[in-house]
Write a structure and sequence with these properties.
The structure is a single chain. With about 70 residues, the chain is α+β, with helices and mostly antiparallel strands. The chain has helices at about 15-20, 55, and strands spanning about 5, 25-30, 40, 65. It has one domain (about 5-65): Alpha-Beta Plaits. The protein contains 2 helices and 4 strands; from the N terminus they run E-H-E-E-H-E. It has a two-stranded antiparallel sheet with strand order 1-4. A two-stranded antiparallel sheet has the order 2-3. The structure holds iron/sulfur cluster (2 copies). One iron/sulfur cluster binds next to helix 1.
Length: about 70
């Protein structure tokens, strides 16, 4: 099963990756990061295919895909 790693301090919480993930594997987290925004988090076991859409769309290069 593929998975992604999100750099929570680099993420600006724009939500683009949530919008573009075809599997709904990414969600907003509740706590703030050092930038004062809520970063996104990966939902383990949510069927990530490793398609890389999230990493490609992220304007801050905060996502790495492992497959
Ligand atoms: S690699 Fe694809 S399926 Fe996995 S979290 Fe990113 S957009 Fe979603
Ligand atoms: S696209 Fe990048 S910066 Fe925007 S919420 Fe997702 S990980 Fe964070």
């Amino acid at each position: 099963m593929a998975k992604i790693k999100i750099d929570a301090e680099r993420c600006k919480g724009c939500g683009l990756c949530i919008l573009y993930c075809p599997k709904g594997c990414i969600a907003m987290s509740r706590k703030l990061n050092k930038r004062g925004v809520k970063p996104v988090k990966f939902k383990a076991g949510s069927g990530c295919t490793g398609c890389t859409f999230c990493a490609l769309i992220c304007p801050d290069c905060a996502i790495e895909v492992y497959r």
